[in-house]
From TrEMBL:
GO BP term (any one): receptor-mediated endocytosis
GO cellular component, one term: endosome membrane
PANTHER family documented for this protein: DNAJ HOMOLOG SUBFAMILY C MEMBER 13
Gene3D superfamilies xrefs: Leucine-rich Repeat Variant
Signal peptide: none
Protein name: DnaJ homolog subfamily C member 13
Source taxon at top rank: Eukaryota
Species this protein is from: Caerostris extrusa (Bark spider)
Length: 392
């Protein structure tokens, strides 16, 4: 059924609820498969199909609707099965409840239609799905809790998920009263997505969200700052995203967020390090105007929380990356050479794995993404006097 008028009439006259009743409650599996195939063709109609799909999505998960178009037999098997994955939660209770609701609605409309053949069918305003919607955050048909648990799940529509996830994140971060729990879940889901599918990073700039993220980062809110820093850490893995960041006001919002979230200074410096290694002179100009070098040197002198040595390794690497600037490198080196604390760090190697062990005056620590030795203050000179002999 690809004729637009037929699809429209089927929706308004109530044929849709009758077809749904056949799909849910018919005892003959062949009839159910044929019904699924018919509904799939109807939703594919260009003019009225999208509206019909919205109606059907109040009854069935979108995954079922896609299966109806691709493989009606699969749609029936999925309906009869039990699923719990990032794109579908479906069990016996939800199936039995839906079958009951659809049968009731079909019977009610049939009774009314017998008395008035011209009556129009009105779909319910609220979804009829008996799913744990209240306990689940769902974006583009993806259950975030389950996706975070299984980020390598092969999503059917990853770009659509990325787009809606960023839209929701920006909406949440822009509100006056921010739901911190929801913000954390959304941020974690985005980080998982971009980590598991880094190829999606190059699609982010075209969506227009990067300038908005930098703008909202200026808000005096610790949760928003933390979310933005984690997102930018992922964006810094893409040259395309870095180019977009450099074309916006990037350094100043980063510094403000780092000041509020000292616990995330490490990943912030990883982001800066990645960005500066692309040798963007626009970023170097921003860094000098925002006085980033003195700010980072000040952090080197501070007693930082968490894995301080790993964080300072990232700071040193970011500063060394800035020195590579062809246009501003000399000016940056000049600022660094005036710093006493820089003299303690500049000649140390940062190409070795950092661990939590203090060896020969070097305190090291961190993750595999951090490489280098760092001194924690000055080294204590070893005594030339041999240790005393034990009494025999």
């Amino acid at each position: 059924m690809s004729n637009g008028k037929l699809v429209k009439d089927a929706n308004t006259k109530g044929a849709v609820i009758y077809l749904l009743n056949l799909f849910c409650n018919a005892s003959n599996p062949i009839i159910r498969e044929l019904t699924a195939g018919l509904l799939g063709k109807m939703t594919s109609e260009k003019l009225y199909g999208p509206k019909l799909r919205i109606t059907l999505s109040k009854f069935l998960p979108t995954l079922f609707l896609d299966a109806m178009k691709d493989s009606p037999e699969t749609a029936v098997h999925m309906f009869e099965g039990t699923q719990e994955n990032p794109e579908l939660i479906w069990n016996d209770d939800s199936r039995e409840n839906l079958c009951s609701v659809v049968e009731k609605l079909a019977n009610e409309h049939y009774k009314i239609q017998k008395d008035d053949p011209q009556v129009q069918w009105k779909p319910p305003n609220e979804p009829c799905l008996s799913l744990p919607e209240n306990q689940e955050t769902i974006i583009a048909g993806v259950y975030l809790r389950l996706f975070i648990q299984n980020p390598t799940w092969v999503l059917r529509k990853p770009k659509e998920f990325l787009t809606e996830l960023l839209d929701k994140l920006n909406a949440v971060m822009s509100k006056d009263n921010i739901n911190n729990e929801l913000l954390e879940t959304l941020t974690q889901a985005l980080v998982c997505l971009l980590t598991a599918q880094p190829s999606l990073l190059d699609h982010v700039p075209a969506l227009g969200h990067i300038p908005r993220i930098l703008q909202v980062m200026l808000r005096p809110d610790d949760a928003v700052s933390g979310s933005c820093l984690q997102i930018i850490r992922q964006l810094s893995n893409s040259d395309t995203c870095i180019k977009c960041l450099s074309q916006s006001s990037f350094i100043s919002p980063m510094m403000k967020a780092m000041t509020r979230r000292l616990d995330l200074v490490g990943i912030a410096c990883e982001s800066l390090n990645n960005a500066f290694h692309q040798s963007s002179e626009d970023l170097m100009t921003q860094a000098l105007e925002a006085k980033l070098v003195p700010y980072l040197l000040d952090l080197l002198e501070k007693k930082l929380t968490g894995n301080a040595s790993a964080i300072k390794a990232q700071i040193v690497q970011a500063l060394k990356a800035m020195c590579l600037s062809l246009q501003h490198g000399e000016q940056i080196i000049e600022q660094l050479d005036k710093s006493e604390v820089w003299a303690e760090y500049k000649n140390q190697k940062h190409d070795l794995f950092i661990s939590e062990t203090q060896t020969s005056g070097y305190l090291t620590g961190g993750a595999p993404s951090v490489a280098g030795y760092l001194t924690q203050g000055s080294m204590k000179a070893m005594s030339n006097v041999p240790p005393p002999l034990e009494d025999s």
